[in-house]
Amino acid sequence: MIQLDGVSLNYKDDIPLLENVNLHIPQGGFCWLTGPSGVGKSTLLRMLHLEKKSSTGLVTILDTPTNHARRSILCKLKQRIGMVYQDFRLIPNLTVFDNVALPLRLQHSDEETVQRWTMRILGWMGLEHKKYVYPKFLSGGEQQRISIARAVIHRPNLLLADEPTNALDDYQVKRLMDLFYDLNDLGCTIIIATHNDALIRQFPAPRLKLENGQLWTSDAV
Amino acid sequence: MLFKYKTTDGLKLQRALPGQYLIPLVAAMAFLAALSIAGAYASQQLANRWSAGAASTVILQIPTTSDIPFSDNKTTVSPTAKTKTQLILALLAKSKELTSFHQLTDKEIDELLAPWLHESIQSFALPIPVIIELHLKNDPPLSDTLQKSLKEIIPDVVIEQSNFWNQRLNALANSLQTSAFLALLIVISVAATVIALSTRNGLIQCRQTIEIIHNLGASDTYIALRFANRSAYLASIGGAIGSVFSIPLLLFLTYLCLPFSSDPNWQALSNASWFYFLITTPFQLFALFILLPICNYLIGWITTTIIVYFWLRHLT
């Protein structure tokens, strides 16, 4: 469950992005986050990913109040969240395999599990043959798929995706949405930021619209 | 192909915390620390010797009376002085202030005066006083009661307490020791600063990777330990190198300090081989040199852990 109570958020400490926002997304919810470019969708996702602190208000992520939580608790919480970044954020000196396996290794999963799960997700993404390749040798679409694989490999309870379909073709978008729906069926809460209206129409779900510092909710289109 | 599956988190610490700068700097600090430790140890030994030796020693001089006839040009003590000396010895034997006392024999007085007279005192018609060396349980001076009792037996007895010099020599030894410890503290602070700066540079280099793995759920402890273990490893290597390099210099300094040795045959030792000095170096000093790399490891580990924890606070 995600809950925001009277949350305000400033960009670079002085530009207001969110003003007194209230939001409730139940566990297993699925919604789109939309809004014009530069309105602060990525910053809101970063706040939900505990990378940024709200200026005021209470933020509850996966039933955990985070405002005054200890850093160790926030770290544990982050291990239950998957994040797909718009700029992928892959580690350049790690191979595709090691990048994807990172969340499992940080959770101290045994190496056999790491091997099995990583090979499985790479196979699903169609990138098994590139497991020893470094990110700089991959195309944008491939890097995006690696970023998505890294976000979902540890079966998160909350998945935040920032424009995850930008560099993908229609076929890959369809497969990706299938993956997201499968995860959602398993109880994972999913929020996808996009400004692709066609995509939203193709995969209807409740919509959060960020505009002028306010978050408007609307039912599935 | 198995080697390709090695566990890795992307923190290239060999590049972020290179040994080529940290090891020589820490080695230099360890070298200085070894010298400081040796200095502190030598000062402590000197202070102990002075306080256990000269500082707690009092000399009594019982003058021989001038009206006593001297037979055959010999420095014999008059019967009156002899009786009074025995009375004084009896008094000293009863005193609880002393650990021991000793009346110097003619031969010992000869040895004492030999540098000046070049002949036995027996050859001169000199009124040499009876000399009694007192070793006190505590620091001088003698208690007023004992001094009064001694004066009652022989009013012109000379009590040479040499307090003035003893106190100053002890103060000198203590200040040398304090200086050595201060030098050691400064060296430790400089070493910690060098490690802290090196760690900070490493953190800045790895900033992007740290942010990514932190956002993937890597705890502060995990990141701090990764850096701390690397730093501590490099610091201990530097410590070991500095420690080993300090040994030849310390042996040379030991050679130079021979005249201050408690060994009466120190002049004979000046021709001894370096191996002799090596095997006669006090065990405590060697133990400290073995502890030095371990201390460096701990300094490196603690400093790095603190720096990384503080730095990570900048990340949300």
Automatic annotation (TrEMBL), chain A:
SUPFAM superfamilies assigned: P-loop containing nucleoside triphosphate hydrolases
Pfam families tied to this protein: ABC_tran
ABC transporter domain ranges (all copies): 2-221
GO cellular component: plasma membrane
GO molecular function: ATP binding; ATP hydrolysis activity; transmembrane transporter activity
ATP-binding found in the keyword field: yes
Gene3D superfamilies, A to Z: P-loop containing nucleotide triphosphate hydrolases (3.40.50.300)
Keywords linked to the UniProt accession: ATP-binding, Nucleotide-binding
Organism superkingdom: Bacteria
InterPro entries tied to this protein: AAA+_ATPase, ABC_transporter-like_ATP-bd, ABC_transporter-like_CS, ABC_transpr_LolD-like, P-loop_NTPase
Protein name: ABC transporter-like protein
Organism of origin: Commensalibacter papalotli (ex Servin-Garciduenas et al. 2014)
Classification lineage: Bacteria, Pseudomonadati, Pseudomonadota, Alphaproteobacteria, Acetobacterales
Automatic annotation (TrEMBL), chain B:
Keyword Transmembrane: yes
Entry keywords, A to Z: Cell cycle, Cell division, Membrane, Transmembrane, Transmembrane helix
InterPro entries, per the entry: FtsX (IPR004513)
Top-level taxon of the source organism: Bacteria
Keyword Cell cycle applies: yes
Biological processes, Gene Ontology terms: cell division
Residues that span the membrane, as ranges: 21-42, 178-197, 232-256, 285-312
Any one GO cellular component localisation term in the record: membrane
Protein name (Swiss-Prot/TrEMBL): Cell division protein ftsX
